[in-house]
User: What shape does this take?
Amino acid sequence: MPVSDQQAATLRALLEGHIDEHKRLLASLDRKADALGYSALVTAAFQNAIDLRFSRDSTLDEVTEFVAQVRSHSEELRDEVDPRTAERVIIAAVGGGDVPELSSEESNKFALILLAELVIDSHYDEAGMDEFMVKARALADKILLA
Amino acid sequence: MNEVSSSTETTTATGSEASGARESTDSSWRHAGAPDGFQSEDDALEALLASEDRALQGSLDKEDRELEALLDKEDHDLKAILAQEDGAVEALLASEDRLLESSQGQLEPSQGQEVPGGIGGGDFSSPDDPSADDPGTTANSDPAGSGLAASGADGAEGPGAEPQKILFEGKQEEITYEDADLEVTHDAADGIWIEGMPGDPPPRIGEVLSSTEEGEHSRLKGLSELATKRAADITDTGEKLGELIKQQFSSPPPTHTGTLHQVPEKSVGGSEHGIDIGHGVDAVVALAVVGAAAGYKLRQWWGRER
Assistant: This one.
């Protein structure tokens, strides 16, 4: 089952900073039926955003600086985002993998926070955001078929 | 006789600061002897002067002793202050060393040694990768990420060497270091690194990833497993993270990460050579304190000698 428009709209609202809209759309999702599709979309968007920003040739300093940037937004983010774990999540994602010992909740937390930062940092306009979401949906559909 | 005696007593009565001592001396020579008294006025005066000398000498000795005690106390205080400052400087240097070691430890796991949790030391597994525990190899990094990188320094010297002169000539991309021409890549990813200097090129993500690049199918399979794992909590976590992500949007960082692309005719800081500006300031402050203390001691010693 491919990614639905509602799932895509939910993630897009989050990535555009429309948090109230995101909450509303998220609440309207079916927690069981939509979970895998939405998770695949988040995973695909995160993977694409990582691939756009980092590569195997990126230095570890770039990763460190990026994580520092995430944590610099607020005291709460500093408390919530463990820098070493965040760096490991990014590096693992560059290799197409995950940090195995992270729980699903932790894995989601880092993916969503880092994804939001990657999108903020890309300064997408409307068209750029459209393109980003189209590519994320395409990859998510492939993930769901794999 | 009586004249002499009365004369002496008059002197005593009108006397000087040492009158107490003199009176006692007067009475001693009057009572203890000289039934015939002094032979002359000169003798009496001489005795008086001698007694005054003794009294003065006693007073001077007392002042000397007090002065010496005061100087000893000041010496002691100064030593205590110097010891305290030495201790503080040593503690500061030690803490900076520890900080440096810990940061190097995070970025430079030695061969075969795993650094838990840090970059280069974690478990960056990827699907279909049986050797996921290999921490990989890393090398020195450029924390400044200035984008100034060079190679080919023949005349470069050891740690602590500062670049004498750095020149940018348009697109020529050359710097002069220790009379050697170096190539500048201006690639932030290269960091600051000069061949022949301590350290190696900045470590890259590919170096700490144990897995090689994989095919599309296995990549999709891995992402599918990851999506399945995340599906369990995706909606709950999304709800919880709303406020945090709102903060990311409401307080964006100033600009992109500060990458220095070109600094015309300016020398770069020395931290990449093992010297930090902060250490230099610490050293200057410590030297100033020690110098001031030494000057103070010298002045004291000179005053005492005089």
